[in-house]
Specification:
The complex is a heterodimer. By secondary structure, chain A is mainly beta. Chain A is built from no helices and 11 strands. In chain B, the strands form 2 sheets. In chain B, strands 2, 4, 5, 8, 9 and 10 form a 6-stranded mixed sheet that branches. Chain B has a 4-stranded antiparallel sheet with strand order 1-3-7-6, with no helix packed on it.
């Protein structure tokens, strides 16, 4: 039973436009969320995180939004660049076991020039 | 560089054989994780080491899987009597000591295991 779900396996966006990647979770104990980016043949790299005490965290072109009531988070990339083309994973951990992370299946983003 | 390294990068083995996968974490990182990613799936947590504490083995899928971490540094993931469903990319990550929220995981490039 996957506790973190990314229902869109792929997304294609034009350069300069906004990319919105979505993630849903089921465990109400999750209180810390992260996004990772993965290029082919490389390990994932950390992108941005958010604690459940916030509903938004921004870092440059990347913003993560958290809707706790809907158990939903999203990653916004604006403006999108071709170099953003990668697989994006969301992950979550719970306050009672915060070193154990649950990952979604990933969304492959393609930013077209 | 000083990133997480894993070896081998690719491993092809026959069903029933044992395999060992190695992870060299970033120096000074106290936490070490093993994940696997099967085709079309997310990263599946396998095991977590933190300092000298007992590891969290709750993600190991069967008793054919084991891992150890020697001297608080290098880790080896061993899969005995491999099965075709073990085919996946096995990823190792480490993270530095610190308060929660700062414990970003740094991933290695992974080992792609193929069981024929």
């Amino acid at each position: 039973d996957q506790q973190v779900k990314q229902n869109s396996p792929s997304l294609s966006v034009q350069e300069g436009r906004i990319s919105i990647l979505n993630c849903d979770y089921t465990n109400s104990m999750f209180d810390y969320f992260l996004w990772y980016k993965k290029y082919p043949a490389e390990g994932p790299t950390f992108l941005i995180s958010i604690s459940s005490i916030k509903d938004k965290n921004e870092d440059g072109r990347f913003t993560v939004f958290l809707n706790k009531s809907a158990k939903h988070l999203s990653l916004h990339i604006v403006p999108s660049q071709p170099g953003d083309s990668a697989v994006y994973f969301c992950a979550a951990s719970a306050k009672n076991n915060f070193n154990k992370f649950y990952f979604g299946s990933g969304t492959k983003l393609n930013v077209k020039p | 560089g000083a990133g997480v390294s894993q070896s081998p990068s690719n491993k092809v083995t026959e069903k029933g054989k044992d395999v060992e996968l190695r992870c060299d974490p970033i120096s000074g990182h106290t936490a070490l994780y093993w994940y696997r990613q099967s085709l079309g799936q997310g990263l599946e947590f396998l095991i977590y080491f933190q300092g000298n504490s007992a590891p969290d083995k709750s993600g190991l899928p069967s008793d054919r899987f084991s891992a150890e971490r020697t001297g608080g540094s290098v880790s080896t993931l061993t899969i005995q009597r491999t099965q075709q469903e073990d085919s996946a990319v096995y990823l190792c990550a480490s993270s530095p000591p610190g308060v929660r929220g700062k414990d970003t995981q740094y991933f290695g490039p992974g080992t792609r295991l193929t069981v024929l």
